[in-house]
């Protein structure tokens, strides 16, 4: 009898052990509309884990979460300049390349980038630009300049991203300055220009842009290319342009927070995302380029041949990556607060 009870207890312990192993959890914190959900569910099946998925709307929101002591995230998706800031603040764990063999499939142009010179803390996920999405059918003409956001015809119908660096990036590009300008006089000039734009502004927004365009409330949206293509895919009245003055170019990355509770599983997830077939499915769903040449055979021709999604060299040449502004970040942050308050 005692023997039977002990055996049952042992069995229960083993089962509980297996249960908790089966329920290993990976906490992913990504931008919204930035993955094929079936890719996540397939990862759960393949690795017998649960993925808890949460989203953010800007790099600054992601940074504030980590600086605020958020402990739970295992894989995060900061952009280039934000990787540099997070490295500086010791918020990231090193990437163990031996656990991510698919890194070898990444286009070498995206390795050892200025924001992470030894590719020690980040793995490139996607790249692309921001630009102008607009209702071509309603406007009746093509737009090709950031100047459109000051055009009085579009009063109250324009969305600008709720994103400090992207919005000052527009004004800087329109004025012919670098998006990484740290001259206070030029910042002031950009701020005034953006103040003048507010009469046309519906709102600063980064999450509801699709709905606001599809319901016709917004006519134009400053937006990231892939997200705008998700709108165009639903409603062909819309179009997207990378303005002639140039735009912000970004590489969004995958990284593991220093405090991540499941680092080994995080590496497995990153490696899985880099698999060419998986990357191809993501590109087809989100309309953003991934720097994985072997994934191209899985990407729809309509996407791989679109110069707004895979921008050619002449377009890239007029675009610019954001870099960490150091102490000037706070100066810009004050100007941004003033802009949003008035
Ligand atoms: N829906 C995903 C949007 C990702 C945009 N990347 C951000 C670039 C920031 N400069």
Give a description of the structure:
There is one protein chain. The protein is of the alpha/beta class and about 350 residues long. It folds into 2 domains: about 10-125 and about 250-310, 3-Layer(aba) Sandwich (D-Maltodextrin-Binding Protein, domain 2); about 130-250 and about 315-340, D-Maltodextrin-Binding Protein, domain 2 (3-Layer(aba) Sandwich). About 40% of the residues lie in helices and about 15% in strands. It has 14 helices and 12 strands. The strands form 3 sheets. Strands 5, 6, 7, 8, 9, 10 and 12 form a 7-stranded mixed beta sheet that branches. A 3-stranded parallel beta sheet has the order 2-1-3. It has a two-stranded antiparallel sheet with strand order 4-11. β1, α2 and β2 form a beta-alpha-beta unit. Residues about 1-20 have low confidence and may be disordered. The protein binds spermidine (SPD). Spermidine binds next to β10.
Short description:
With 342 residues, the protein is of the alpha/beta class.
**Rg computed from alpha carbons, rounded to a whole number of angstroms:** 22 Å
The unique ligands bound to this protein are:
spermidine
Backbone shape: globular
The helix/strand class is alpha/beta
Characterize the main sheet.
7 strands, mixed
Sequence of secondary-structure elements: HEHEHEHEEHEHHEHEHEEEHHHHEH
Q: What is the CATH third-level topology name of the largest domain?
A: D-Maltodextrin-Binding Protein, domain 2
Mean pLDDT: 93
Residues in helices, as a percent range: 40-55%
């Amino acid at each position: 009898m005692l023997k039977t009870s002990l055996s049952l207890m042992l069995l229960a312990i083993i089962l509980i052990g297996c249960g908790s192993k089966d329920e290993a959890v990976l906490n992913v914190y990504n931008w919204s509309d930035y993955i094929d959900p079936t890719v996540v569910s397939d990862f759960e099946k393949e690795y017998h884990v649960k993925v808890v998925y949460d989203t953010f709307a800007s790099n600054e929101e992601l940074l504030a979460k980590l600086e605020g002591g958020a402990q739970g995230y295992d894989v995060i998706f900061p952009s280039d300049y934000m990787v540099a800031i997070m490295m500086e603040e010791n918020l990231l764990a090193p990437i163990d390349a031996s656990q991510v063999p698919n890194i070898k499939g990444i286009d070498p142009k995206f390795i050892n980038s200025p924001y992470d010179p030894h590719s020690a803390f980040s793995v490139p996920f996607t790249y692309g630009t921001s630009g102008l999405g607009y209702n071509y059918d309603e406007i009746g003409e093509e737009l090709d300049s950031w100047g459109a956001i000051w055009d009085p015809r579009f009063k109250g119908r324009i969305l600008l991203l709720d994103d400090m660096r992207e919005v000052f990036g527009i004004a800087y590009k329109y004025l012919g300055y670098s998006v990484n300008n740290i001259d206070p006089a030029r910042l002031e000039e950009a701020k005034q220009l953006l103040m003048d734009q507010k009469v046309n502004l519906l709102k600063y927004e980064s999450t509801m842009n699709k709905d606001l365009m599809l319901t016709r409330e917004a006519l134009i949206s400053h937006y990231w290319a892939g997200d705008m293509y998700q709108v165009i895919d639903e409603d062909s009245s819309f179009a997207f342009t990378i303005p002639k003055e140039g735009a912000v170019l970004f590489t969004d990355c995958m990284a593991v927070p220093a405090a991540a509770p499941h680092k080994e599983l995080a590496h497995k997830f990153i490696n899985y995302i880099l698999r060419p077939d998986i990357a191809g499915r993501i590109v087809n769903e989100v309309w953003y380029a991934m720097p994985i040449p072997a994934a191209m055979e899985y990407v729809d021709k309509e996407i791989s041949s679109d110069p707004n999604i895979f921008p050619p060299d002449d377009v890239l040449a007029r675009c610019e990556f954001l870099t960490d502004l150091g102490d000037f970040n706070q100066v810009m942050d004050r100007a941004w607060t003033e802009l949003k308050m008035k």
